[in-house]
Structures
1.
Amino acid sequence: MWMWIPSGGGRVLAFAYEDPTAGPSAKGAYADDPPTAEQLQAVLEDPSQTFRQPDAFDATPVKDPKRLGLPAEPPWIVWFRTRVR
């Protein structure tokens, strides 16, 4: 699931996943709504922000991910799910 997470005066566009060692987590990058091409590329290719228990950070679901040009899953999430231990 894609979500917005308030952080440091901005918002992070992030994708939720289950970290087997830390529970619910999210990775993403700062972005506007809608994200610029550069921001979208950062979210998809270099998600530099990590949140453990994103609900504790007032995460809200992205209402229409397709409107923002987001895939159902970012290209890296399958790799990340299999590597986190």
2.
Amino acid sequence: MAEEVARPFSVLTLGAGFPPGLNTADSDTVLQPDETPDGYGYDLSKDGKLVKNTTAAGGTDRVQKTITLSTVPYLWHYGRLWNITLRTAATASNILTYGAMNYNDIYVPQKNGKVYFDEDDQTIDAIVPIGEDSLAVVKATGTYILSNLNDTRALWQRTDLIQELGTGTSATGSGRVLELDGALFASNTNGLFAYSQGRTAEITRKVRNGVTNFADKAITADYEKKRIIGKTLTVTDYIYDVEAGKLFRYNSTNFRYTTPRFHLPDWSPFYADRFYAVIEHADATDAWFVYQVRYEDGQWTDEVRVSVNYTGEMYTVVTVPLDEGMNNAAYTKFQMRITNVSSTSGTTNLYFKSFDIGLFNFDREHYKR
């Protein structure tokens, strides 16, 4: 009788570096383990973990000091009075009025007291201080940067119109622009953009093929955690983590996490025998989660519920055997997703640290992502 020879077995990463940032613009076969092609509803307060939380914390509106003189509203920045009138007013203008330095109880113009932003007839929607001595002057069609504002002689520099930093025509800029860490963030119908040190970046580039959830939203900031929060009324639609460079989507009361689509470097066939979930227990009760998988470009399988018993240890490695997949045939692509997680008294009671896949007939040393 011939001796049975054990097949080589390797464990490789499906998902890690949580919470995962959303990336729908790139193919799901090229995403990194800390990205997801389809995911929403995460608790961002748990660094390094995937945690269900469909209700995201809100941010804070930007604070600007207002001084009213003879019924005229002024903003106070860099020791000067500045006057703009929102587009809804009959006197809306594309001229920014300013006063002499250190006068805050009476308006005293310096020079002619005006800066013109008249490349088009759109009115000024908002001004936002950025950096150490600059103002962003925001219109529906774009933004100007007015700098060197600490100069007592009013010898300033003014850029031309930066059109990608417009706020769109559907709403005023007052709730769609803000400053964070010296950068200006602007929300418009094309998504979320940022301006810093003379350069503009498209923050929503990774979801530019589907910006509905990210376009033309009122934005606030979590200044402590360095996050931009996009909202529709009081409902959070997305969060952008500035330091991590990740976008997170929210979708009503729903939760989902989808891994990148796994394949071998040379796209050769493989067979997935199981996957592993490294879990941290949030309390001392039993828990569960629901998953689905799919092979190649096929449909998602039926949902499967996995029980996670609490054993007194903080961490548990759950091994989930996979069925025969494509009738026990090898395949070139594999993907899984988590669609629900248990809770205790309304609070999710397990956190995911990582997901790995167990493969037969593959040498780990030849694997490079």
3.
Amino acid sequence: MPNPSHTSSSAEASGPHAAARVPSRPTPVSAIYAFSFINSLATGLVTSGIFFITNAAYQFTQLQNFALGVLLGITYIAGALGAQPAVHAIRRVAPGISSRRTVMLTMVALAVLTTLPVLVCGLGPIEPGAGGQWVIWVLIALYSPLTGLLWPMIESFLSGGRSGPELRSAIGRWNVVWSGSLVFGYFAIAPFIERAPGTAFLALGGLHLLSLFVVLRFPREPGEHHHEHAANVPPVYADLLVTFRILLPASYVVSSALQPMLPASCAAIGVPVAWQTIAASAWLLARCAGFFVLSRSEAWHGKWSAPILGGGLIVVGFALTALSPLLLPASYAPESGPHVPALAALLIGLSLFGFGMSIIYAGAIYYAMEVHAAEVEAGGMHEALIGFGYAAGPAMGVGATLAVRQGLIAERYLNALVLAGMLLVLTVAVVLVVRSVRAAHAKPAS
């Protein structure tokens, strides 16, 4: 999938390229959609599906998976904040290089990185005690920041030369495309997780290389960005933008805490390894469905019910997901097969969570386009906020896991402790939203 940084606006994404942009035609949406489908399949599975691979094939503990999530977030922050300086540095070294060529070089680098686990560990899983886990840490440390560079460039190609209903329609369909590819990817990767993780990595690298042919349909530079005048935008849109801009990083703190715990939760309730990513795809499928519904309707525009519903669904969905193992009886053995009530709670929780994420994500993009507040942000800052969410969530998981190891809480309550941390994050987000909206209303009318 496009990394969760995709919520940046077209103006933000274009920042690294503004100095070198030559006016060009809009990029064909079919090319953007094809590229995004292919690469969301690869980048999304490396940055989120990786936790299932490390759990089943590389003997990572839950603590290691949480720590890996922290590394992913920190390196993404570095990549997001460094995207603009990096592109400017490339242009200084090679003044004639185009945005299209920069995308192609990024794809080659990502493809090369996916070969590292195969070179070190081979195509199959590693044997217990054989070592080689370090290569996963190296892969994420190098791969994650490159995704922080890639997706803002693709957003720039998507939005360049488009405005108004055309732009909103293009982004709405794009959300469905990239999120739908992840659902497909979680099904496709399932047979390889336990027995042939190296094969999965090679396949993902091949997808990066395949997308090079699609990039050839891109113009050399994104089209010029057209911005609608905001004179007729209802005042409530500015308040809603503030709300979604606060809820967005908070929602990704929750999301990033959820993903590393899913393999252990699925295993605890008896889901076979080959079916774990399929079960986990429930939230991805719900998010994709949510994007489709929201892209077809304007009923939620300007309504406070949207962020309230989105935030509420995230809280309830995460709680059901995190607490589903607590439904297991003390005598239950995972080898006996899935525990139906716990599995049902897990799937329902994931579905509610995914739909809530779609509302927050779509709202952040929509109001950024309408209000254009993104223009005042430094290039990559919004992506860095999402990266903070990606690091902070697993960091809470690390703290909870260490509390279990120190005997401060029972292991069965680990997810409940993480849930408490997530509720604290969301409570702080709600307080910030209320304060920001009150401050906005207190300003005298200009």
